């Protein structure tokens, strides 16, 4: 502004000098030329004077004449059509100066930037755009407290109304609507719907049925974890327990009753998975007089679901029984063992290979879903076959379930006059067993470093023998074709070269029953993870001896292992034979993995369940005399409980002496067997 005023004053002085000079020397053109050159000498002066000289002078009004100063604004160069003309505005008391306007402009710009920053912060806090200026206006209003209170009241009222509506109609109206919809769908499709199967109920897998077609499947909801009371613990442990008295007598008019071989048995199951993946079986073959000739007991530890274990429980004993019919001489132990092996292998071939061939011949996703589930999942199998007439006991094991025989040995140092000795009739077939690792390495030459990794087959499956588990048995071509029909099926392992890697062929042991053989304990690995063989046999033996109360025992793994080694060494010197069972049962602990089985700790055992030995073992495995530990272990719901305990299935079979009858109680009116035709 100072430059413009100075230029204007210089122009006025120049015009005055020009008039004076022209009036004094009107004929002198040279002076006028020199004066014009002086004006053009400065470009700054020329650019600032031209618009001022060319602009018309505004007329003064009487109100404007009293003003002492004027404001000169910059020329308007916004458009090309209009000339650059400076605007001269008067300054009065009510009009702001140019400087004040500039400050107001900066203030408005800062306010706009602040509003934009608040808008960006709102969008950032509310995950995206959608800023509503009305909300900002509501917050910044003077009456924001009142408006917020009204808004909160409306939201609260709506929430209370929705809560009462859902609480009132959730358990009445919606299930009725769902049931009506299911009935309409059933009438249109021609399918009949029934109640959902319970965890202990057997499910059938026919060609057109699927376990996922049940319309009323139970919906599990999140629930708070609460410690069970002692009454709830007892109820939970006794939920699946059963005890049966079995009298294997043949009534003949000429002969007296023969000696009993099987006095009775008891079973129990405690689930960790929901539904439980374990299963069990009890089959029998009777003679014409109704007496028992052959008995089959089985426990089956499923993994990857319950489909395979259930099917094996239903079909394994009939499959073995059909093979035993071809054995002409029951005294031929090798022929009987071979028949048992064939019964295992034929059932596994039916589950794994025959079903997939049917699916590939007639590709159908519903057929694949209903037929291939037992093959895709897996199951260990432990079966005890008892020839009652010959008093022969055969134990066939596929997987890591275990059978231990309780033998009563006379002892002069014991207060009861006898001790209880465990005799293992099976060994765990896992990637931790040296004998199994050596077998797999010999069957797959060139894959010694990959066939067993971290104690598991191909680094994935822990048992080296199992039913199902087609992922370790099918060829790559079959697996790729199954994957197209069954997208949820997993791809083969990276080091999958020479299948099959897993077999269902069992290891069969024979034992001739003697008078000192009192009971046989068959259980899945959920029990053996918590108790040792010696502890299990001692617990059942003390229960038969009538022991009550509680006792403490310090379990030291290394000390027990050293004592066993000394006893086996002495036995080898006496008999002069190498104990092959020791090699098979020796555990190979991979690097960076804890040893399998119970840890060294102080054990508190209790003798509370006098009527059921299976429940007695389960109680002591999960806590025993420590009531808090027992309640806490059972209080953890599925599937979190799988981290702390596995499914446990226990069957205890009692063999026949008269004095052992009083120690076994049974309230069942039936023997609980399923007859094989």
TrEMBL record:
This is Protein serine/threonine phosphatase 2C. InterPro entries: PP2C (IPR015655), PP2C_BS (IPR000222), PPM-type-like_dom_sf (IPR036457), PPM-type_phosphatase-like_dom (IPR001932). One of its GO terms (molecular function) is metal ion binding. One of its GO terms (cellular component) is mitochondrion. Residues 101-127 have a biased composition (Basic and acidic residues). Keywords: Hydrolase, Metal-binding, Protein phosphatase. It holds the Pfam family PP2C. SUPFAM superfamilies: PP2C-like (SSF81606). The lineage of its organism: Eukaryota, Fungi, Fungi incertae sedis, Mucoromycota, Mortierellomycotina.
